[in-house]
Amino acid sequence: MSPSPLRPLNPLSLRARDERGVVLSTRLLALSISAVAMAGLVFLANDPDEAGRPEQVTPAVTEPSPTPSASPTPSSTPTAKPTKKVQPVKPAETYVVVYNNTRTTGLAGTVAGRAKAAGWNVVGSDNWYGTVDGTTVYFPPRLKAAGKALGRDLGITSVKPAEEPMQFDRLTVILTDDYS
């Protein structure tokens, strides 16, 4: 058998394949950028306490400058410590769910009514299936102060960080047999 004749390479056909590879990676890049942008929008849309709210400005505290003297004297005045910015608690803007982990029928609904009467935005009440240490208000990190305030309003002393499967955009109250 004789070898088949070699066909000359067409430079345009090679170029077309290269361009398809470039187009594919450009599309992939555009898709990736779009996905990141969408994820950012979803994050902002699902953060009701922070999204679209203007930043609160805390006035700076300045100390008067010392007057120059002939001999320097040590200052006995303590320097001001930087203060941590604390968000005010807004019960009407804070979501709350109340769960009953007792055999007392209607306890979650009763406590949810107390929370509503105190101004909290109660979005649900139901039964909790699982084991918890005692009646507790669970909070996501950004709602710690609100969790403590809700605990005071309901007479609950145990306030802890939220855990899975709790939702992290609201306060979760779980009532046990120790709630009175």
Q: How large is the radius of gyration?
A: 31 Å
Q: Mind telling me the CATH class of the domain at 91-175?
A: Alpha Beta
CATH architecture of the domain at 91-175: 2-Layer Sandwich
Run of helices and strands: HEHEEHEE
Determine the strand fraction and express it as a percent band: 5-15%
**Uncertain residue ranges:** 10-24, 49-62
Distance between the termini: 98 Å
Number of helices: 3
Question: What does the largest sheet look like?
Answer: 5 strands, mixed
Mean pLDDT: 75
Under CATH, the topology of the domain at 91-175 can be stated as Alpha-Beta Plaits
Instruction: Kindly state the number of beta strands.
Output: 5
Spatial strand order of the main sheet: 2-1-5-3-4
Q: Which range best describes the helical content: under 10%, 10-25%, 25-40%, 40-55%, 55-70% or over 70%?
A: 25-40%
Helix/sheet category: alpha/beta
The dominant shape is elongated
Region (Disordered): 50-87
Biased composition (Low complexity): 72-81
Domain LytR/CpsA/Psr regulator C-terminal: 95-179
Protein name: LytR cell envelope-related transcriptional attenuator
Brief characterization of the structure:
With 180 residues, the chain is α/β, with parallel strands linked by helices.
Summarize the structure in words.
- By secondary structure, the protein is of the alpha/beta class.
- Among the domains are: 13-46; 91-175, Alpha-Beta Plaits, CATH 3.30.70.2390.
- Helix content is 32%, strand content 14%.
- It has three helices and five strands.
- The longest helix has 35 residues, at 11-45.
- Mean pLDDT is 75; it is low at 10-24 and 49-62.
- Residues 72-81 have a biased composition (Low complexity).
- It comes from Nocardioides aurantiacus.
- Pfam families: LytR_C (PF13399).
- Residues 95-179 form the LytR/CpsA/Psr regulator C-terminal domain.
